[in-house]
Specification:
Number of domains: 1
Number of strands: 6
Bound molecules: nicotinamide-adenine-dinucleotide
Radius of gyration: 17 Å
Structural class: alpha/beta
Helix content: 40-55%
Distance between the termini: 35 Å
Largest sheet: 6 strands, parallel
Strand content: 5-15%
Order of helices and strands: EHEHHHEHHEHEHHHE
Amino acid sequence: MKGSGLLQNKKGIIFGALDEDSIAWQTALQVHAEGGAVILTNFPAAIRLGKINELAALINAPVIPCDVAHLSEIEGLIDKTKEYFSGGFDFILHSVGMSYNIRKKNEYTHLDYELYLRTLEVSAFSLHKILQSCYQKNALNDFASVVALSFMASQKVCPGYNDMADAKAVLESIVRNFGYYYGKSKNVRVNSVSQSPTATTAAKGIEGFSVMSELSNEVSPLGNATAKDVAKYICMLFSDYTHKITLQNLYHDGGYSSMGFK
Ligand SMILES: NC(=O)c1ccc[n+]([C@@H]2O[C@H](COP(=O)([O-])OP(=O)(O)OC[C@H]3O[C@@H](n4cnc5c(N)ncnc54)[C@H](O)[C@@H]3O)[C@@H](O)[C@H]2O)c1
């Protein structure tokens, strides 16, 4: 993988690399190619069952387990990251999502509310917990950049997306609201990237995913963006070329979101 030194001297945490298909996996590779230093994290079962240790060996990165449902684990991760980098760091990728209702095949009209809460906790509130921990521990450097992954189901109805649509709407709101406070205090940028349907483990569980993916690929003038494409975009957002971009939900979807009829 080729890079241009865009992230020379930048360091940060990447959440959510499970296997080669993961958006986080491709981003970690691209960040490394651009000269950045990475700490990888995922929850313990994913570390055991996925392939994150292979990625860690490829890019010479430590893996620190963290279940984002638990504030204490997030706080521990932030402390260890500061220790590893001997101070503050410059970027965070939140590439985490899980719907327990989708997994149990509960439709949106028949949600289990405990599972609904867990979906929101892991897929959305976790971003608040990460930002709040960093804020209170003064962990991010000036002009650091935080990117979370979203999907257009936050704003438009995509029935199979189920309670994840609500999680993404909350996630985008946290981006704006926490981004305000972190921007005022430390010039930290917080954005979400709304990505095309991308064939990953998380996506394959969504009912009707392949139909949705084919349709958006056909309708978008540039076709669907891949995990490798979004990895490059995220590196740009981590770089010093985007200091004034914050509080945004940025579409990275080959133009799909602006299309009417084709
Ligand atoms: N694939 C798509 O079509 C698509 C489109 C738009 C946005 N996204 C978003 O991109 C992000 C990354 O997903 P992906 O498509 O790369 O799939 P993925 O399955 O590779 O990644 C999801 C990650 O979340 C992690 N995770 C789940 N529960 C966790 C927990 N409790 N603690 C810590 N980590 C946990 C998983 O282990 C996995 O690594 C998600 O937010 C997803 O909603 C995906």
